[in-house]
Amino acid sequence: MILIRDLYNIRASHRPSVVSIGNYDGVHLGHARLINVLREQACRLGASATIMTFEPHPHEFFSPENAPPRLLRWRDKIEKLERAGVDQIFSLRFDRELAQTSAEDFVRKYLVDGLGVRHLVIGDDFRFGRKRTGDINLLRTLGEAWGFTINAVETCEVQGQRVSSSRVRNALSDDDFELAARLLGYRYAIGGRVAHGDKRGRNIGFPTANIVLRYDNVPVWGVYAVLVHSQGRSPLPGVANIGTRPTIGGERVLLETHLFDFDESLYAERIQVEFQTKIRPEKRFESVEALKTQIAKDSDTARSWFAQASQTGE
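Below the sequence we write its predicted structure tokens.
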């Protein structure tokens, strides 16, 4: 797969293309439907199946304090799109210039002149351009003028409702990981490289594998039973806290995972922390001893959940 970072990196070899445009946050079942059509059309036309996406998310540019939580870190999104079988990802920096680009200029500059678009695959509610004035009717008009065709893919539904990134976020906020998995097509996880921490967990008897999160705005928060996936190992059960660790005066958002009956080093490895069920919200304790006691209780709760899940075949 080819990753193209911004317009100035497009080469002749990246054209022609069949393109789908979107944030693709979560790469959920609705996105999978678009990608299937994208690949079929690319094969039919002998062109590259290309995803155009944006970094940062437009909501983060326009209103960072009100932006919805990201479901996937940027690297995880790219990896999922690669596994979905796309040929190219065109990651376009969303900035003031792009935000002010009219719908017609966007199509000309990035799709026609840039990617040499032959066919466009979009959702049936797709809007684009300055003030979101572009829609499918404009695209059909421009396609006739500039030589590309369009597929408007019908909405994907689960349980009679539209699959969307917002609906996945709501499911995670409600601690409904089963619904989130049905919408995503996989169980929700956060990935990252294990970093050295302050060793506080080890000092109180609960060593942790720590992932520092770039963004404070995450869709899960608190203490969870988790499975950790790492290369060359079976999934490892544990208990994780995602938050700022208020008892010890933490400031940055950290994902800390204590693995059960595991004493190997994971430092510098990339892992995926897969969320199974929520145990409790994050809270501030009066002392480190009180925190230690609570972590022991959380670990027992998580172990009991895994034991019950194993008995019921989940």
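The chain has two domains: 14-153, 188-312.
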